[in-house]
Amino acid sequence: MKKFRFTKWAAIAGVVSVAMLSSQIVEAADTALKAIAIKVKVFAGDNEVALDKEAVTINGSLYVPVRAMGDALGQNVTWDNASKKVTLREYPFVEGKYTWMNPPSLGLGLKEGGFSGLLHMPGDPDNVFYTLADRGPNGQITIDKSVNRTFPVQDYVPRFYKIKLEGGQVTILETNKLQLPVGAKGVVSGNRNTTGLSNIASDEKSYDNTGTKLLPLDPDGLDLEGIAYSPSDDTLWMADEYRPSLIQVKRDGTIISRYVPAGDKAKLANAQIPIVEAFPAIYSKRIVNRGFEGVTISPDGKYLYASIQSPMAVPDKATGEASRNLRILKMDLATKKVIGEYVYVAEDAKTFVNVSQKDVVISDLHALAADVLLVDERDKNEGAAAQIKRVYKIDLSKATNVLNKSDISNNVEALSSDLLKASGIATAPKSLILDLTKLGYPFEKFEGLTVLNKNTILVANDNDFGVGEYDANGVLKLTDKQTQVWEIAVKSLW
Q1: Of 99, 367, 375, 432, which is the most exposed, with the fewest CB atoms less than 10 Å away?
Q2: Which superkingdom (predicted)?
Q3: What is the C-alpha separation between 247 and 473, in angstroms, rounded?
Protein backbone atom coordinates (compact mmCIF):
# COMPACT_ATOMS: atom_id res chain seq x y z
CA MET A 1 0.00 0.00 0.00
CA LYS A 2 3.04 2.29 0.32
CA LYS A 3 3.47 5.09 -2.25
CA PHE A 4 6.98 6.28 -3.20
CA ARG A 5 8.02 9.83 -4.12
CA PHE A 6 11.24 10.74 -5.90
CA THR A 7 12.85 13.42 -8.06
CA LYS A 8 14.66 11.58 -10.85
CA TRP A 9 14.94 13.27 -14.23
CA ALA A 10 13.88 12.32 -17.74
CA ALA A 11 14.26 13.84 -21.19
CA ILE A 12 11.13 15.70 -22.33
CA ALA A 13 8.80 13.92 -24.79
CA GLY A 14 7.12 15.35 -27.85
CA VAL A 15 3.61 15.28 -26.39
CA VAL A 16 4.56 17.97 -23.88
CA SER A 17 5.17 21.62 -24.76
CA VAL A 18 7.80 23.63 -22.87
CA ALA A 19 8.21 27.38 -22.48
CA MET A 20 11.73 28.46 -21.33
CA LEU A 21 11.77 31.48 -19.02
CA SER A 22 15.32 31.77 -17.59
CA SER A 23 18.45 29.71 -16.85
CA GLN A 24 21.18 29.24 -14.27
CA ILE A 25 24.36 27.14 -14.54
CA VAL A 26 24.85 24.47 -11.86
CA GLU A 27 27.18 21.48 -11.51
CA ALA A 28 25.66 18.21 -12.77
CA ALA A 29 26.06 15.44 -10.20
CA ASP A 30 28.72 12.79 -10.87
CA THR A 31 29.85 14.36 -14.15
CA ALA A 32 32.14 17.07 -15.49
CA LEU A 33 29.27 18.43 -17.58
CA LYS A 34 27.49 21.61 -16.59
CA ALA A 35 23.77 21.45 -15.83
CA ILE A 36 21.88 24.64 -16.59
CA ALA A 37 18.74 25.07 -14.50
CA ILE A 38 15.91 26.27 -16.71
CA LYS A 39 12.74 27.92 -15.51
CA VAL A 40 10.14 26.40 -17.80
CA LYS A 41 6.42 25.86 -18.01
CA VAL A 42 5.38 22.36 -19.02
CA PHE A 43 1.97 21.83 -20.62
CA ALA A 44 0.03 18.68 -21.43
CA GLY A 45 -2.29 20.09 -24.05
CA ASP A 46 -3.69 23.28 -22.50
CA ASN A 47 -3.06 22.16 -18.92
CA GLU A 48 0.08 23.25 -17.10
CA VAL A 49 1.98 20.50 -15.25
CA ALA A 50 3.37 21.40 -11.83
CA LEU A 51 7.13 20.73 -11.48
CA ASP A 52 8.49 19.76 -8.05
CA LYS A 53 12.05 20.51 -9.29
CA GLU A 54 13.35 22.88 -11.94
CA ALA A 55 14.17 21.52 -15.38
CA VAL A 56 17.80 21.50 -16.51
CA THR A 57 19.79 21.27 -19.72
CA ILE A 58 22.86 19.03 -19.85
CA ASN A 59 25.02 18.90 -22.97
CA GLY A 60 22.24 20.46 -25.01
CA SER A 61 19.44 18.14 -23.84
CA LEU A 62 16.51 19.38 -21.77
CA TYR A 63 15.54 17.32 -18.71
CA VAL A 64 12.43 17.62 -16.53
CA PRO A 65 11.47 15.65 -13.38
CA VAL A 66 10.19 12.26 -14.41
CA ARG A 67 7.20 12.58 -12.08
CA ALA A 68 6.14 15.66 -14.00
CA MET A 69 6.54 13.66 -17.20
CA GLY A 70 4.29 10.98 -15.77
CA ASP A 71 1.70 13.58 -14.81
CA ALA A 72 1.86 15.10 -18.26
CA LEU A 73 1.33 11.69 -19.85
CA GLY A 74 -1.42 10.76 -17.40
CA GLN A 75 0.65 7.93 -15.95
CA ASN A 76 1.74 6.80 -12.51
CA VAL A 77 5.45 6.94 -11.72
CA THR A 78 7.18 4.78 -9.12
CA TRP A 79 10.81 4.44 -8.09
CA ASP A 80 12.48 1.28 -6.77
CA ASN A 81 15.59 2.46 -4.99
CA ALA A 82 17.04 -1.05 -4.65
CA SER A 83 17.01 -1.78 -8.36
CA LYS A 84 17.23 1.90 -9.41
CA LYS A 85 14.17 1.27 -11.59
CA VAL A 86 11.64 3.85 -12.75
CA THR A 87 8.24 2.51 -13.78
CA LEU A 88 5.52 4.43 -15.61
CA ARG A 89 2.08 2.79 -15.68
CA GLU A 90 -1.05 3.96 -17.40
CA TYR A 91 -4.08 4.53 -15.15
CA PRO A 92 -6.04 2.65 -14.00
CA PHE A 93 -4.01 -0.36 -12.89
CA VAL A 94 -4.13 -2.99 -10.16
CA GLU A 95 -1.75 -2.27 -7.29
CA GLY A 96 -2.69 -5.23 -5.13
CA LYS A 97 -4.93 -8.27 -4.76
CA TYR A 98 -5.82 -9.66 -1.36
CA THR A 99 -7.52 -13.03 -0.83
CA TRP A 100 -9.45 -14.41 2.15
CA MET A 101 -7.50 -17.63 2.31
CA ASN A 102 -8.99 -19.65 5.18
CA PRO A 103 -12.50 -18.50 6.15
CA PRO A 104 -13.91 -20.12 9.32
CA SER A 105 -16.20 -23.13 8.97
CA LEU A 106 -19.98 -22.83 9.21
CA GLY A 107 -20.58 -26.59 9.10
CA LEU A 108 -21.81 -28.84 6.26
CA GLY A 109 -18.56 -28.09 4.45
CA LEU A 110 -19.54 -24.42 4.17
CA LYS A 111 -17.34 -21.51 5.15
CA GLU A 112 -17.87 -17.86 5.93
CA GLY A 113 -17.98 -15.66 2.85
CA GLY A 114 -18.60 -12.24 1.45
CA PHE A 115 -18.01 -9.43 0.85
CA SER A 116 -21.18 -7.43 0.17
CA GLY A 117 -19.82 -3.98 0.94
CA LEU A 118 -16.58 -2.16 1.77
CA LEU A 119 -15.71 0.81 3.96
CA HIS A 120 -12.54 2.65 4.94
CA MET A 121 -13.10 4.49 8.19
CA PRO A 122 -11.44 7.89 8.76
CA GLY A 123 -8.39 7.60 10.99
CA ASP A 124 -7.81 3.90 10.38
CA PRO A 125 -4.55 2.66 8.84
CA ASP A 126 -4.48 2.58 5.04
CA ASN A 127 -4.77 -1.21 5.01
CA VAL A 128 -7.68 -1.59 7.47
CA PHE A 129 -11.29 -1.72 6.29
CA TYR A 130 -14.80 -2.81 7.27
CA THR A 131 -16.98 -5.14 5.26
CA LEU A 132 -20.00 -7.38 5.77
CA ALA A 133 -21.68 -10.59 4.66
CA ASP A 134 -25.30 -10.95 3.59
CA ARG A 135 -28.05 -13.31 4.82
CA GLY A 136 -25.79 -16.36 4.89
CA PRO A 137 -25.24 -19.38 2.67
CA ASN A 138 -28.26 -20.05 0.47
CA GLY A 139 -29.01 -22.00 -2.66
CA GLN A 140 -31.82 -22.95 -5.00
CA ILE A 141 -33.25 -26.43 -5.48
CA THR A 142 -36.10 -27.52 -7.72
CA ILE A 143 -38.79 -29.55 -5.95
CA ASP A 144 -41.81 -30.61 -8.00
CA LYS A 145 -41.06 -27.88 -10.56
CA SER A 146 -40.88 -25.28 -7.80
CA VAL A 147 -37.56 -23.46 -7.32
CA ASN A 148 -37.07 -23.16 -3.56
CA ARG A 149 -34.56 -20.98 -1.71
CA THR A 150 -32.62 -23.04 0.82
CA PHE A 151 -30.78 -21.94 3.95
CA PRO A 152 -28.39 -24.79 4.85
CA VAL A 153 -27.08 -23.00 7.98
CA GLN A 154 -30.31 -21.97 9.67
CA ASP A 155 -28.65 -20.48 12.74
CA TYR A 156 -26.39 -18.20 10.69
CA VAL A 157 -26.16 -14.70 12.18
CA PRO A 158 -25.57 -11.77 9.78
CA ARG A 159 -22.25 -10.11 10.59
CA PHE A 160 -19.68 -7.50 9.71
CA TYR A 161 -15.91 -7.65 9.79
CA LYS A 162 -12.92 -5.45 10.45
CA ILE A 163 -10.22 -6.61 8.07
CA LYS A 164 -6.56 -5.98 7.29
CA LEU A 165 -4.99 -6.24 3.83
CA GLU A 166 -1.41 -7.41 4.00
CA GLY A 167 0.91 -9.73 2.10
CA GLY A 168 -1.72 -10.57 -0.50
CA GLN A 169 -4.16 -11.82 2.12
CA VAL A 170 -7.30 -10.64 3.90
CA THR A 171 -6.95 -11.04 7.66
CA ILE A 172 -10.03 -10.80 9.87
CA LEU A 173 -9.29 -8.53 12.84
CA GLU A 174 -12.81 -8.54 14.32
CA THR A 175 -16.10 -10.30 13.64
CA ASN A 176 -19.25 -8.61 14.95
CA LYS A 177 -22.56 -10.45 14.72
CA LEU A 178 -25.71 -8.36 14.44
CA GLN A 179 -27.58 -8.34 17.75
CA LEU A 180 -31.07 -7.26 18.74
CA PRO A 181 -31.32 -4.52 21.39
CA VAL A 182 -30.37 -5.50 24.93
CA GLY A 183 -33.16 -7.49 26.59
CA ALA A 184 -34.83 -8.47 23.31
CA LYS A 185 -35.41 -12.03 22.13
CA GLY A 186 -35.92 -12.85 18.47
CA VAL A 187 -39.10 -14.71 17.57
CA VAL A 188 -37.00 -17.27 15.66
CA SER A 189 -33.62 -17.26 17.40
CA GLY A 190 -35.02 -17.07 20.93
CA ASN A 191 -32.11 -14.83 21.90
CA ARG A 192 -30.49 -11.58 20.76
CA ASN A 193 -29.18 -13.09 17.52
CA THR A 194 -30.58 -11.88 14.22
CA THR A 195 -31.15 -14.26 11.31
CA GLY A 196 -30.98 -14.05 7.54
CA LEU A 197 -34.50 -15.41 7.06
CA SER A 198 -37.28 -13.65 5.15
CA ASN A 199 -39.57 -11.24 7.01
CA ILE A 200 -43.11 -11.61 5.70
CA ALA A 201 -45.25 -13.96 3.62
CA SER A 202 -44.83 -11.98 0.39
CA ASP A 203 -41.04 -12.33 0.59
CA GLU A 204 -39.17 -15.19 -1.03
CA LYS A 205 -39.90 -18.29 1.06
CA SER A 206 -37.08 -19.83 3.11
CA TYR A 207 -36.51 -23.63 3.14
CA ASP A 208 -34.15 -25.99 4.88
CA ASN A 209 -31.24 -27.66 3.10
CA THR A 210 -33.49 -30.28 1.51
CA GLY A 211 -35.77 -27.67 0.00
CA THR A 212 -38.81 -29.42 1.45
CA LYS A 213 -39.25 -27.93 4.93
CA LEU A 214 -40.50 -24.37 5.12
CA LEU A 215 -38.62 -22.28 7.67
CA PRO A 216 -40.31 -19.69 9.91
CA LEU A 217 -40.54 -16.04 9.00
CA ASP A 218 -38.45 -13.64 11.05
CA PRO A 219 -39.62 -10.01 11.21
CA ASP A 220 -36.07 -9.08 12.22
CA GLY A 221 -34.36 -11.09 9.45
CA LEU A 222 -31.76 -9.17 7.45
CA ASP A 223 -30.06 -9.48 4.08
CA LEU A 224 -27.20 -7.01 4.43
CA GLU A 225 -25.61 -5.51 1.32
CA GLY A 226 -23.91 -2.19 2.10
CA ILE A 227 -22.07 -0.46 4.95
CA ALA A 228 -21.37 3.19 5.80
CA TYR A 229 -20.00 5.16 8.75
CA SER A 230 -21.56 8.16 10.49
CA PRO A 231 -18.84 10.29 12.14
CA SER A 232 -21.37 12.45 13.97
CA ASP A 233 -22.42 9.66 16.36
CA ASP A 234 -19.87 6.89 15.67
CA THR A 235 -22.44 4.45 14.31
CA LEU A 236 -22.64 2.25 11.23
CA TRP A 237 -25.47 2.18 8.71
CA MET A 238 -26.19 -0.93 6.67
CA ALA A 239 -28.40 -1.52 3.65
CA ASP A 240 -30.90 -4.40 3.70
CA GLU A 241 -32.45 -5.93 0.58
CA TYR A 242 -35.54 -7.44 2.18
CA ARG A 243 -37.89 -4.56 2.90
CA PRO A 244 -35.86 -2.56 1.67
CA SER A 245 -34.51 -1.02 4.86
CA LEU A 246 -31.56 0.70 6.46
CA ILE A 247 -30.36 -0.29 9.90
CA GLN A 248 -28.34 1.85 12.28
CA VAL A 249 -25.86 -0.20 14.29
CA LYS A 250 -23.45 0.38 17.17
CA ARG A 251 -19.82 -0.59 16.75
CA ASP A 252 -20.37 -3.77 18.77
CA GLY A 253 -23.13 -4.96 16.42
CA THR A 254 -26.14 -3.90 18.49
CA ILE A 255 -28.92 -2.69 16.21
CA ILE A 256 -30.38 0.69 17.17
CA SER A 257 -33.21 1.11 14.65
CA ARG A 258 -34.50 -0.15 11.32
CA TYR A 259 -35.77 2.38 8.78
CA VAL A 260 -38.43 1.09 6.38
CA PRO A 261 -40.95 2.37 3.79
CA ALA A 262 -44.16 3.98 5.02
CA GLY A 263 -46.73 1.30 5.82
CA ASP A 264 -44.21 -1.46 6.55
CA LYS A 265 -44.19 -1.19 10.34
CA ALA A 266 -47.53 -2.99 10.60
CA LYS A 267 -46.19 -5.81 8.42
CA LEU A 268 -43.38 -6.49 10.89
CA ALA A 269 -45.47 -7.51 13.87
CA ASN A 270 -43.38 -8.90 16.76
CA ALA A 271 -40.20 -7.26 15.44
CA GLN A 272 -37.74 -6.65 18.25
CA ILE A 273 -35.84 -3.94 16.41
CA PRO A 274 -37.40 -0.45 16.75
CA ILE A 275 -39.05 0.32 13.41
CA VAL A 276 -39.09 3.80 11.85
CA GLU A 277 -41.12 4.50 8.71
CA ALA A 278 -38.81 6.82 6.79
CA PHE A 279 -39.06 6.10 3.05
CA PRO A 280 -41.85 6.67 0.54
CA ALA A 281 -44.40 3.84 0.56
CA ILE A 282 -43.67 3.06 -3.07
CA TYR A 283 -40.34 1.50 -2.02
CA SER A 284 -42.31 -1.50 -0.76
CA LYS A 285 -42.78 -2.30 -4.44
CA ARG A 286 -39.18 -3.30 -4.84
CA ILE A 287 -38.70 -6.56 -6.74
CA VAL A 288 -38.10 -9.42 -4.29
CA ASN A 289 -34.47 -9.48 -3.09
CA ARG A 290 -33.72 -6.32 -5.06
CA GLY A 291 -34.00 -3.77 -2.26
CA PHE A 292 -31.36 -1.37 -0.97
CA GLU A 293 -27.91 -2.46 -2.11
CA GLY A 294 -25.67 0.55 -1.63
CA VAL A 295 -25.38 3.03 1.24
CA THR A 296 -22.86 5.80 1.86
CA ILE A 297 -22.49 8.92 3.99
CA SER A 298 -20.95 12.21 2.89
CA PRO A 299 -17.51 12.91 4.42
CA ASP A 300 -18.98 15.76 6.52
CA GLY A 301 -21.44 13.30 8.07
CA LYS A 302 -24.51 15.32 7.10
CA TYR A 303 -26.13 13.20 4.41
CA LEU A 304 -26.78 9.53 3.80
CA TYR A 305 -27.42 8.13 0.31
CA ALA A 306 -29.04 4.77 -0.44
CA SER A 307 -29.50 3.10 -3.81
CA ILE A 308 -32.08 0.57 -4.87
CA GLN A 309 -30.45 -2.43 -6.55
CA SER A 310 -32.83 -2.63 -9.52
CA PRO A 311 -35.73 -0.67 -10.95
CA MET A 312 -38.80 -1.44 -8.85
CA ALA A 313 -42.06 -3.16 -9.83
CA VAL A 314 -43.71 0.14 -10.72
CA PRO A 315 -46.37 -0.21 -11.92
CA ASP A 316 -45.57 -3.93 -12.29
CA LYS A 317 -42.64 -6.36 -12.31
CA ALA A 318 -42.45 -6.56 -16.12
CA THR A 319 -42.08 -2.79 -16.36
CA GLY A 320 -39.41 -2.77 -13.66
CA GLU A 321 -37.39 -5.54 -15.28
CA ALA A 322 -37.40 -3.70 -18.61
CA SER A 323 -36.55 -0.30 -17.11
CA ARG A 324 -33.16 1.39 -16.90
CA ASN A 325 -34.23 3.90 -14.23
CA LEU A 326 -32.96 3.29 -10.70
CA ARG A 327 -33.50 5.43 -7.62
CA ILE A 328 -31.06 7.01 -5.19
CA LEU A 329 -32.39 8.49 -1.92
CA LYS A 330 -30.82 11.25 0.18
CA MET A 331 -31.40 11.46 3.94
CA ASP A 332 -30.59 14.32 6.31
CA LEU A 333 -28.89 12.49 9.17
CA ALA A 334 -29.62 15.25 11.67
CA THR A 335 -33.37 14.75 11.26
CA LYS A 336 -33.41 11.20 9.82
CA LYS A 337 -35.73 12.55 7.11
CA VAL A 338 -35.48 11.79 3.40
CA ILE A 339 -34.90 15.05 1.55
CA GLY A 340 -34.06 13.87 -1.95
CA GLU A 341 -34.78 11.25 -4.59
CA TYR A 342 -32.89 11.09 -7.87
CA VAL A 343 -33.02 9.04 -11.05
CA TYR A 344 -29.93 7.12 -12.12
CA VAL A 345 -30.02 5.59 -15.60
CA ALA A 346 -28.26 2.24 -15.97
CA GLU A 347 -26.49 1.16 -19.13
CA ASP A 348 -28.64 -0.05 -22.01
CA ALA A 349 -28.44 -3.86 -22.07
CA LYS A 350 -29.26 -3.89 -25.78
CA THR A 351 -25.85 -2.40 -26.54
CA PHE A 352 -24.12 -5.43 -25.00
CA VAL A 353 -24.04 -9.15 -25.77
CA ASN A 354 -26.07 -11.58 -23.63
CA VAL A 355 -26.88 -8.98 -21.01
CA SER A 356 -30.43 -8.73 -19.67
CA GLN A 357 -31.67 -5.30 -18.58
CA LYS A 358 -33.01 -6.70 -15.31
CA ASP A 359 -29.49 -7.84 -14.42
CA VAL A 360 -27.85 -4.42 -14.80
CA VAL A 361 -27.80 -3.24 -11.21
CA ILE A 362 -26.25 -0.87 -8.67
CA SER A 363 -24.22 -2.81 -6.10
CA ASP A 364 -22.60 -0.10 -3.97
CA LEU A 365 -22.06 3.63 -3.46
CA HIS A 366 -19.26 5.79 -2.11
CA ALA A 367 -19.63 9.52 -1.34
CA LEU A 368 -16.67 11.69 -2.34
CA ALA A 369 -18.49 14.84 -1.16
CA ALA A 370 -22.03 15.98 -0.55
CA ASP A 371 -23.99 14.91 -3.67
CA VAL A 372 -20.86 13.62 -5.45
CA LEU A 373 -20.89 9.83 -5.46
CA LEU A 374 -19.16 6.86 -6.99
CA VAL A 375 -21.59 4.21 -8.24
CA ASP A 376 -20.81 0.51 -8.65
CA GLU A 377 -22.78 -0.66 -11.71
CA ARG A 378 -22.54 -4.27 -12.88
CA ASP A 379 -24.08 -7.02 -14.95
CA LYS A 380 -24.69 -10.66 -13.95
CA ASN A 381 -21.91 -12.14 -16.09
CA GLU A 382 -18.44 -13.13 -14.94
CA GLY A 383 -15.00 -13.76 -16.41
CA ALA A 384 -14.68 -13.20 -20.15
CA ALA A 385 -18.46 -12.86 -20.50
CA ALA A 386 -18.61 -9.86 -18.15
CA GLN A 387 -19.19 -6.54 -19.87
CA ILE A 388 -20.39 -4.16 -17.17
CA LYS A 389 -18.23 -3.95 -14.07
CA ARG A 390 -17.90 -0.20 -13.81
CA VAL A 391 -17.44 2.67 -11.41
CA TYR A 392 -19.15 5.90 -12.42
CA LYS A 393 -18.89 9.31 -10.82
CA ILE A 394 -22.18 11.22 -10.49
CA ASP A 395 -23.17 14.66 -9.20
CA LEU A 396 -26.68 14.72 -7.76
CA SER A 397 -26.60 18.52 -7.49
CA LYS A 398 -27.00 18.48 -11.27
CA ALA A 399 -29.93 16.05 -11.17
CA THR A 400 -33.58 16.83 -10.48
CA ASN A 401 -34.94 16.07 -7.02
CA VAL A 402 -38.16 14.17 -7.79
CA LEU A 403 -39.09 13.43 -4.17
CA ASN A 404 -42.05 15.79 -4.11
CA LYS A 405 -42.95 15.39 -7.77
CA SER A 406 -45.51 12.63 -7.28
CA ASP A 407 -46.34 12.36 -10.98
CA ILE A 408 -42.68 11.45 -11.60
CA SER A 409 -41.75 9.63 -8.38
CA ASN A 410 -44.76 7.34 -8.65
CA ASN A 411 -43.86 6.38 -12.19
CA VAL A 412 -40.05 6.54 -12.50
CA GLU A 413 -39.57 3.02 -13.85
CA ALA A 414 -42.10 3.44 -16.67
CA LEU A 415 -40.66 6.70 -18.03
CA SER A 416 -38.44 6.67 -21.11
CA SER A 417 -35.51 9.05 -21.40
CA ASP A 418 -37.56 11.17 -23.80
CA LEU A 419 -40.44 11.42 -21.32
CA LEU A 420 -38.06 12.34 -18.51
CA LYS A 421 -36.57 15.11 -20.63
CA ALA A 422 -40.00 16.30 -21.70
CA SER A 423 -40.96 16.51 -18.02
CA GLY A 424 -37.88 18.60 -17.26
CA ILE A 425 -36.22 15.82 -15.25
CA ALA A 426 -32.43 15.75 -15.31
CA THR A 427 -31.04 12.34 -14.44
CA ALA A 428 -27.76 11.92 -12.56
CA PRO A 429 -24.92 12.73 -15.00
CA LYS A 430 -22.38 9.88 -15.24
CA SER A 431 -18.66 9.91 -15.99
CA LEU A 432 -16.70 6.66 -16.21
CA ILE A 433 -13.94 6.32 -13.63
CA LEU A 434 -13.07 2.63 -13.82
CA ASP A 435 -13.89 -0.33 -16.07
CA LEU A 436 -12.89 -3.53 -14.28
CA THR A 437 -13.41 -5.69 -17.37
CA LYS A 438 -10.30 -4.05 -18.83
CA LEU A 439 -8.30 -5.15 -15.79
CA GLY A 440 -9.26 -8.81 -16.07
CA TYR A 441 -11.70 -8.79 -13.15
CA PRO A 442 -12.96 -12.39 -12.89
CA PHE A 443 -15.93 -12.13 -10.53
CA GLU A 444 -19.64 -11.65 -11.14
CA LYS A 445 -20.59 -9.93 -7.90
CA PHE A 446 -18.51 -6.79 -7.68
CA GLU A 447 -20.35 -5.57 -4.56
CA GLY A 448 -17.89 -3.61 -2.42
CA LEU A 449 -16.53 -0.16 -3.24
CA THR A 450 -14.56 2.31 -1.15
CA VAL A 451 -11.94 5.05 -1.59
CA LEU A 452 -8.64 5.34 0.26
CA ASN A 453 -7.44 8.59 -1.30
CA LYS A 454 -7.87 10.54 -4.52
CA ASN A 455 -5.79 8.00 -6.44
CA THR A 456 -6.91 4.72 -4.87
CA ILE A 457 -10.14 2.74 -5.15
CA LEU A 458 -10.70 -0.62 -3.48
CA VAL A 459 -13.30 -3.15 -4.65
CA ALA A 460 -14.52 -6.44 -3.20
CA ASN A 461 -16.57 -9.35 -4.46
CA ASP A 462 -19.26 -11.50 -2.89
CA ASN A 463 -18.41 -15.18 -3.42
CA ASP A 464 -21.84 -16.38 -2.20
CA PHE A 465 -20.13 -18.44 0.52
CA GLY A 466 -18.87 -20.78 -2.19
CA VAL A 467 -22.39 -22.17 -2.64
CA GLY A 468 -23.12 -23.68 -6.04
CA GLU A 469 -26.08 -25.64 -7.37
CA TYR A 470 -27.78 -28.84 -6.22
CA ASP A 471 -27.00 -32.02 -8.11
CA ALA A 472 -29.56 -34.57 -9.33
CA ASN A 473 -29.49 -36.27 -5.92
CA GLY A 474 -30.31 -33.08 -4.04
CA VAL A 475 -26.79 -32.61 -2.73
CA LEU A 476 -25.52 -29.04 -2.54
CA LYS A 477 -22.36 -28.53 -4.58
CA LEU A 478 -19.67 -26.09 -3.55
CA THR A 479 -17.53 -23.84 -5.72
CA ASP A 480 -13.96 -22.64 -5.41
CA LYS A 481 -14.88 -18.97 -5.78
CA GLN A 482 -12.72 -16.81 -3.58
CA THR A 483 -13.38 -13.56 -1.83
CA GLN A 484 -10.88 -10.91 -2.88
CA VAL A 485 -10.24 -7.22 -2.35
CA TRP A 486 -8.48 -5.39 -5.20
CA GLU A 487 -6.57 -2.15 -4.75
CA ILE A 488 -6.73 -0.08 -7.95
CA ALA A 489 -4.85 3.10 -8.80
CA VAL A 490 -6.81 5.75 -10.69
CA LYS A 491 -5.62 9.07 -12.05
CA SER A 492 -7.58 11.43 -9.82
CA LEU A 493 -10.99 11.31 -8.14
CA TRP A 494 -11.03 14.99 -7.18
Answers
A1: 432
A2: Bacteria
A3: 39
- Residue 22 has a pLDDT of 58
pLDDT at position 64 is: 84
Q: Residues 225, 117: contact at Cβ < 8 Å?
A: yes
Alpha-carbon distance 423 to 409, whole Å? 12
Q: pLDDT tens digit string along 253-299?
A: 999 999 999 999 999 999 999 999 999 999 999 999 999 999 999 99
With a CB cutoff of 8 Å and minimum separation 6, the contacts of 213 are 207
Domain boundary among 90, 123, 141: 90
Same domain, 129 and 264: yes
Q: What are phi and psi of 214, to 5 degrees?
A: -75, 130
**CA distances (Å), 20 to each of 16, 56, 255, in order?**
13, 10, 64
Q: Are residues 149 and 26 in the same domain?
A: no
Task: Judge contact between 399 and 393, C-beta under 8 A.
Answer: no
Range of the domain at 70: 16-90
Whole-number Å distance between alpha carbons of 283 and 262: 8
Nearest to 324 by CA among 340, 312, 316: 312
Alpha-carbon 408 to chain mean position = 27
Is 468 within a domain? yes
CA-based max dimension of the chain = 88
Does the pLDDT of residue 6 top 50, yes or no? no
Positive or negative, the CA dihedral 384, 385, 389, 390 is: positive
Contacts of 421 (CB under 8 A, 6+ apart): none
Closest by CA position to 207, among listed 157, 139, 106:
139
Burial 447-458 (b: 16+ CB within 10 A, else e): bbbbbeeebbbb
Same-domain pairing of 212 and 264: yes
- Residues 86, 99, single domain; the answer is no
Question: Do 235 and 143 have their domain in common?
Answer: yes
Compute the distance between CA of residue 432 and CA of residue 310 in angstroms, rounded to an integer: 20
Whether residue 244 is preceded by a cis peptide bond, meaning omega within 30 degrees of 0, is yes
- Residues 449 and 340 grouped into a single domain: yes
